[in-house]
Write a structure and sequence with these properties.
The complex is a heterodimer of chains A (333) and B (310). By secondary structure, chain A is mainly alpha-helical. Chain A has 12 helices and 2 strands, in the order H-H-H-E-E-H-H-H-H-H-H-H-H-H. In chain A, strand 1 and strand 2 form a beta hairpin. In chain A, helix 6 packs across helix 7 and helix 9 runs antiparallel to helix 12. The two termini of chain A are 47 Å apart. With 310 residues, chain B is an all-alpha fold. Chain B folds into 2 domains: 42 residues; 233 residues, MetI-like fold, CATH 1.10.3720. Chain B is built from 12 helices and no strands. In chain B, helix 3 runs parallel beside helix 6 and helix 4 packs across helix 6. Chain B is flat and about 90 Å long. The chains are: A mainly alpha (333), B mainly alpha (310).
């Protein structure tokens, strides 16, 4: 055994807790290093394969339709016309509705847990929220399908039409018959679904604000709310934006919860939230079984490719923001 | 904070500047202070009610699933296959078995890659390559599950096998599990004190033996947590399975044939127009929630002491 030389490398290793070594001189070390390295590399290969394969399969549709794939609204497999602007529109609208509804509730809960709640209440509530975050989306879809959609059709949507619907410009958002399975309902289900996720991350972000910030404000005689707006929120801003964006990313790519309540019809883009529609994800879920022709298949894959690219962009941005805001705590999905 | 002024002799106190007035008016009888306290009270009320509303809403949904799901549960529900509409009885046993089988195969595929990557990141991971791997793991974790589904559908269902199959479902679940296993296990490995590694290396163990015989056993609970957590998450996935395994009304253990899964069964039952099937959908939902929350509850409780919260 070459004890002396490996002793030297080990002495060199003491400089850091987890030093980088390329396997060293020991045969076992080399094999082991190679094994875990190849595991790490396979993760890179996986993402690369995903992007490349989707791109290859989407090429036919993207090549045939070009930019009109994203800007036109006729999705007509019979005549081999594939435009996805209304899918993109539905995705954006439902995700935005979800954000508008979920962000205040989630940030409010985070502030409550970090600033207002008595100590004995904090951990149990946070624990329940973490548990709620693992409820599968199909459960929310099921609930939305059987419970929320009838409530929206029977009560909420007629009420919105009777009140906000009468206001000149805003009213456009709530025109048309109350169907119950439409963009608005999909947005509400998404909001409920992303609540626990955004709550949990926002709480970590708010908790990471140093107490000295709060003490400074309180020492100056600020009220609790002034402490929050003057010290906590400015410090946590980028982290909170990141938390909300992670929620957006989750809403953006959600399939099942949306598919069951969005109506899955209509090729029009209208200002009203009460029109049934599609999101990109729900369109895929509804179309894949019928994609018999090569160009149809390619178009479905192209929708997935667009979804992939957008999610990579949003996730990348969100993670950068959360990292800056709260160290490395909030990186789970 | 050390204050040099504190050492000044007391008689010079007369020359010390008077304290600056606080920018906040604390005189409760003045108008501006009253409105400040009013705003504070209103905002406190809003924040408390936001928290109450959010948590309450989620708990109501859970309770609703329990109330609607309980009547569906009986022995047949767990042992029989789904029957065509009109026949009384039947259950979701093929879906339970299918989910179990696909999760097992997915674990065999995904867990070694996940743990290997975690070991690399925790024990060797420095420099730009490790940062890239970490970032890519995060990106895969953030992928919409339907995108994973379309990838596996295009690759295995359309190009390789030619029909919907359980193996494709397993691959899709494995891709979803990998980032969860990696992130959890990496964090757990980082909790192993460096003194353990130093002691083992100091005794002359090669690095790989240090990791296998000291680091991994110390973090055993964490490894199990990561795997179970990822299984809980993957077990509830619906969209990728819909595109790959498709579902099946019959018992089938054949990995190259369509395979049933519990979340897909919920979907199929829910969108059908029969009341009896709707009840079974709620029942399946209840079973799914119970299994998933029990799994994540167990892992969270077991790691609470070592990690606080993940």
């Amino acid at each position: 055994m070459d004890l002396a030389s490996s002793e030297a490398t080990r002495v060199a290793q003491r400089q850091g807790p987890t030093p980088v070594i390329g396997g060293g001189t020991n045969v076992g070390d080399r094999i082991f290093h190679l094994a875990v390295l190849s595991a790490a590399q396979s993760v890179l290969v996986l993402l690369a394969a995903l992007v490349v394969l989707l791109f290859i399969d989407a090429k036919e549709a993207l090549g045939r339709f070009g930019l009109s794939f994203l800007t036109t609204t006729d999705w007509d497999p019979v005549f081999e016309k594939f435009g996805t602007a209304h899918f993109v529109f539905g995705t954006l609208v439902t995700s935005l509705v979800a954000l508008v509804l979920a962000a205040p509730l989630a940030i409010g809960t985070a502030l409550f847990l970090a600033e207002y709640a008595p100590r004995w209440l904090r951990e149990p509530v946070a624990f329940v929220i973490e548990l709620l975050a693992v409820i599968p989306s199909i459960i929310f879809g099921l609930w939305g399908f059987f419970v929320l959609a009838p409530i929206m059709r029977g009560y909420v949507e007629p009420f919105l039409k009777a009140t906000v619907g009468q206001v000149p410009v805003l009213g456009e958002l709530f025109s048309g018959p109350a169907i119950g399975k439409d963009l608005l309902t999909a947005g509400v289900v998404l909001a409920i679904m992303i609540l626990p996720t955004v709550m949990a991350i926002a709480r970590e972000v708010v908790r990471s604000v140093p107490d000295t910030q709060r003490e400074g404000m309180i020492g100056l005689g600020a009220t609790k709310w002034e402490t929050i707006t003057g010290a906590v929120l400015p410090y946590a801003r980028s982290g909170l934006v990141g938390a909300v964006m992670l929620g957006f990313a989750r809403a953006f790519g959600e399939t099942m919860a949306v598919t069951m309540v969005i109506g899955n019809s209509s090729n029009v883009i209208s200002a009203s939230l009460l029109t049934p529609g599609y999101t990109m994800a729900s369109a895929i879920a509804n179309q894949f079984t019928e994609a018999d022709k090569e160009i149809y298949f390619s178009a479905v894959v192209a929708v997935a490719l667009v979804l992939l690219l957008v999610s990579v962009i949003i996730n990348g941005l969100a993670r950068l923001l959360v990292w800056r805001g709260a160290g490395n705590v909030a990186t789970r999905r | 904070m050390s204050r040099p002024a504190a050492s000044a002799p007391p008689m010079r106190a007369a020359f010390v500047q008077p304290p600056r007035p606080s920018p906040f008016n604390r005189n409760a009888s003045s108008g501006s202070a009253r409105s400040r306290y009013l705003v504070d009270g209103v905002m406190r009320g809003l924040i408390v009610s936001a928290a109450a509303a959010g948590v309450f809403l989620l708990l109501v949904i859970l309770l609703y699933v329990v109330v609607r799901g309980l009547p569906a549960l009986n022995l047949d529900f767990f042992t029989q296959r789904p029957l065509p509409y009109g026949e009384v009885g039947g259950g979701v046993a093929p879906a339970l078995l299918g989910t179990l089988e696909m999760l097992t195969v997915a674990s065999l595929l995904g867990v070694p890659i996940g743990i290997g990557t975690a070991i690399y990141l925790s024990e060797y991971g420095r420099g730009p390559f490790a940062s890239i791997v970490r970032f890519v793991v995060d990106l895969i974790a953030g992928l919409p599950s339907i995108v994973v589904g379309v990838f596996v559908w295009a690759l295995m269902v359309r190009h390789v096998v030619g029909n919907y199959n359980g193996l494709a479902g397993s691959v899709a679940l494995a891709i979803i599990m990998i980032p969860i296993v990696t992130r959890t296990v990496e964090e757990m490995l980082r909790l192993v004190p460096d003194t353990y590694r130093e002691a083992a290396l100091g005794l002359g163990l090669p690095r790989w033996k240090t990791i296998m015989a000291v680091v991994l056993p110390t973090a055993r609970a964490g490894l199990i947590t990561g795997v179970v957590l990822s299984m809980a998450r993957a077990g509830g996935e619906t969209a990728p399975l819909l595109l790959t395994a498709l579902g099946n009304q019959f018992f089938s253990a054949d990995l190259l044939a369509p395979m049933a899964a519990l979340p897909v069964q919920i979907y199929n039952y829910a969108v059908a127009p029969y009341d009896d099937w709707h009840t079974k959908a709620w029942g399946s939902a209840l079973v799914l929630i119970l299994v998933i929350s029990l799994l994540s509850l167990a892992t969270r409780l077991s790691t609470r002491n070592t990690l606080g919260e993940r």
